[in-house]
Amino acid sequence: MAKKKPIVLRLNPELAKSVEKWAADEFRSVNGQIEWIINKALKDAGRLKKGEQSDK
Prior knowledge:
Shape: globular
Organism: Fulvivirga lutea
Mean pLDDT: 91
InterPro entries: Arc_rbn_hlx_hlx, Ribbon_hlx_hlx
Largest sheet: none
Number of helices: 2
Number of strands: 0
Protein name: Arc family DNA binding domain-containing protein
């Protein structure tokens, strides 16, 4: 498994609450949900090489 790079992310409280609810609805951690969202956005935008993705 590739080592993950820690980052600091600041969200407004309403956005954070929405992400927390979404993560809970899908049985993910908030960190896992944010990783999933970013990975999906990168795929949809064609920014990942074929077969490349995060650990999830």
